[in-house]
Design brief:
Length: 490
């Protein structure tokens, strides 16, 4: 073998090894740090480089009425909105998973299954041994949640105070509930020792807001949570008192892997800058000071509390079962089309919950006067018809959904044009993201809408591109919070 041939072989081998290395660092649900740490130091890459290669920032957050929830079908929350702004700053998509199991979340972070825990995490010295905290974005303290006395609204301040625990010494002999894995247990344990013992501490696998409701309903007498969470909940449960502190003020921050120096630096710089902006002040006011808005979200369409996405869940479930779809996906379509408004009419004449065009609507026997149930049934039938057009061609059901959604929005003809363009230019005509969606976008350019394989001319594909993306993104949020078979309850 010649030296030249040996050199080429070595280069090819190195390229293959590099490709395998990059593949190992681009996670697909598998931990990352474990793979990278097996490499020699000079071959390792930073956490930020791994995130860039993966193509998204993966975070786990909690579902409650502050951090992350659905209201009238739209994802909201203080943590969620901050995370969206951070991801935009990083120019990365945001992948949100939801878990109120703190121990599991810390385990996932250690393993590298998520990049960050974005919750109302109190910064403690014990936690600092396991994770790296970002710059704090809030301050809070731990408080006792208790019920005010019966007919408290008829009492004066002195009478109410006399019926409440204000001295921590009076907690001796009391049963106090806390969320399992939280810092509240450690603080209560310390407080119990400080007062000579006697506090009966019960750790349960329920997040703080569900425990707060149990206090409000009289199912338990006491629990401990962060003051900002407690204060917000007193708007919905005015019978509660959160005026007894059991800790000093503490910082609240997000957590990253202790070896995520590159990610931590980016987040810290952003938080430091963002906290000085009017946008942050508005966001803080929206979730912590604007009690009227908080009362509004605790309506029947506050999904965390009610399990509902819309007023039309029953018919959406029924029609989804008929066409073989997840009802949360169809709900996302209805939200995208009409924001659950059965009287919606577009500039182009599309109407109703499903925004069918008059010609299509007529073929399914509905008019602007049709009931919401008839509108949803017609839209579902149209979806089923589109599904039948693709089922023998696009066998992957997840991919087929995207083609159906795109066709629902812009018309089957334009999507078939985009598939033909993909095939002509050696892309996969049966893959939406990165293939057919790209060629649909090109249908607004003369070079492509005049191509001989195109039969339906010009198309403004960006709207359909965003339509599919928005529905699928919202569907992920719905899956995070709403069970498919059993409606979530308190």
């Amino acid at each position: 073998m010649t030296k030249k041939h040996t050199y080429r072989t070595l280069v090819l081998l190195l390229l293959v090894l590099a490709t395998l290395f990059l593949g190992a660092c681009k996670p697909s649900g598998e931990p990352r740090f474990r793979d990278v740490e097996q490499l020699k130091p000079e071959n390792r890459i930073t956490h930020m480089e791994m995130i860039r290669q993966y193509g998204a920032l993966r975070v786990v957050t909690e579902y409650n009425s502050i951090s992350y929830f659905l209201y009238r079908g739209q994802p909201l929350g203080f943590q969620y909105e901050m995370l969206q702004k951070l991801a935009n700053h990083m120019n990365l998509p945001l992948e949100v998973s939801v878990s109120n199991d703190l121990e599991r979340n810390f385990s996932d972070l250690r393993e590298g299954s998520v990049d960050m825990i974005a919750m109302n995490l109190t910064v403690t010295s014990r936690r600092k041994q396991d994770v790296a905290f970002t710059e704090p974005f809030l301050q809070t303290r731990q408080v006792l949640v208790q019920r005010k006395p019966a007919e408290w609204d008829k009492m004066n301040q002195k009478q109410r105070e006399a019926a409440l625990i204000r001295n921590q010494l009076d907690l001796a002999g009391k049963v106090v509930y806390v969320q399992a894995g939280s810092v509240y247990e450690a603080r209560l344990r310390t407080l119990s020792n400080e007062i000579g013992g006697g506090i009966d501490i019960r750790e349960v696998n329920l997040e703080s807001e569900r425990l707060i409701q149990r206090v409000a309903l009289g199912e338990i007498d006491y629990m401990v949570c962060d003051e900002n969470v407690g204060l917000v909940n007193t708007t919905y449960f005015p019978q509660l008192d959160v005026g007894t502190a059991i800790s000093f003020p503490q910082h609240v921050a997000w957590a990253v892997h202790p070896r995520s120096d590159s990610l931590l630096k980016v987040i810290d710089q952003w938080i430091t800058s963002y906290r000085k902006t009017d946008n942050y002040a508005i966001l803080y006011h929206k979730y912590f000071n604007n009690r009227h808005s908080y009362r509004n979200i605790h309506s029947e369409y506050y999904t965390l509390g009610s399990g509902k996405i819309s007023p039309f869940d029953a018919v959406i479930r029924k029609e989804s079962e008929r066409i073989g779809w997840d009802w949360r996906l169809l709900a996302s379509v209805v939200y995208q089309e009409s924001r659950f408004n059965p009287d919606a009419v577009s500039w182009a004449g599309a109407f109703g919950l499903m925004q069918l065009m008059p010609i299509t609507a007529k073929s399914y026997g509905i008019t602007v006067d049709s009931s919401p149930e008839e509108q949803i049934r017609a839209g579902a039938s149209f979806i089923k018809w589109l599904d039948e057009r693709f089922e023998d061609v696009i066998v992957d059901p997840d991919e087929r959904i995207k083609f159906i959604l795109a066709s629902y929005n812009i018309g089957l003809g334009h999507i078939q044009d985009a598939r033909r363009l993909a095939e002509r230019y050696e892309s996969d005509p049966n893959i939406w993201s990165g293939s057919v969606d790209k060629w649909l976008l090109k249908k607004s350019e003369p070079e492509y809408y005049s191509d001989q394989v195109v039969r339906h001319g010009f198309a403004r594909g960006i709207e359909t591109y965003n339509f599919v993306k928005d529905i699928m993104d919202r569907y992920e949020h719905y899956k995070n919070i709403v069970n498919n078979d059993v409606i979530a309850r308190w």
